[in-house]
Amino acid sequence: LLFRSLWELGQLERRRQRSAEALMVWSDLARSKNPYRAEALIELAKYYEHKEKNLFMALECTQESEKLAPSAETAHRRRRLEAKIATPRSRRLL
Known about the structure:
mainly alpha
């Protein structure tokens, strides 16, 4: 019940656009063995990819999630992140 409550709290904070609070909840869930661990890692991956623009952390979270609960969606996310990291970004002068 505790882990489900934490998961719901993280989702609520995300919907309320309170990223820092949601990040704390998902981090707690990702650190301990529980049924929501893999999902919390995916939420962390989304946060790091889209908010922080940290593709390496996003990939690390995705890989950990894939180890815990392999799925086609997680594999697709991992491949996409690997491709983004491998593709050099062009440098704009202006």
